[in-house]
Amino acid sequence: MAGDSVDTVELGDLSDLADGEMRCFEDVGKYGIVVCRVAGTLHALEDNCSHADTPLSEGRFRGKMITCPLHGAQFDVTDGSHSGPPAWEGVPCHTVVETETGVSVRLDGSVRDDRSEGFGGAGGIIQTR
Ligand code: FES
Fold first, then answer.
1. Atom of ligand 1 nearest to the CA of 71
2. pLDDT in tens, 54-98
């Protein structure tokens, strides 16, 4: 599309990626991406914790949440939002298209401004001590 500067990457066939499994693609984007399957649907996040730059793909993935291996921040893989400290914001969540011929990811994710939603209340001000 003319004027469209968003990259799309082809990841090939990921039909072997079952529910509850994730796979990282280190060479995609700035930090790599981690692709996770939840209830049959694939989701792709930037593979980088927003707290202190750690690969989320090295963490634990349960349900729809991925837990950072370093300090335990949790992120919802379906939208990139975080569930609270020590992360202060979510991570980019990209558009995934899966067809019979393979999977493509449009690197269009941006960090959701979820600081005013839920955790932390208005403005996201959280006092931890
Ligand atoms: S680097 Fe992920 S929670 Fe600290």
1. 3
2. 999 999 999 999 999 999 999 999 999 999 899 999 999 999 999
Average pLDDT, the chain: 88
Residue 129 above 80 pLDDT?
no
Determine the atom of ligand 1 nearest the C-alpha atom of 86: 3
Domain 8-113: which CATH number of 3.30.70.1350, 3.40.228.10, 1.20.1090.10, 2.102.10.10: 2.102.10.10
Query: Taking the CA of residue 41 as centre, how many other CA atoms within 13 Å lie in the half-sphere pointing to its CB?
Result: 10
Domains in the chain: boundaries:
8-113
Ligand 1, atom 4, lies closest to the CA of 71
Q: Which residues of 25-38 are buried (b: 16+ CB within 10 A; e: fewer)?
A: beebbebbbbbbbb
**Is 46 a residue whose pLDDT tops 50?**
yes
Residue type at position 65: M
pTM of the predicted protein model:
0.84
Ligand 1 pocket, CB under 6 A? 49, 51-52, 54, 68, 70-73, 86-87
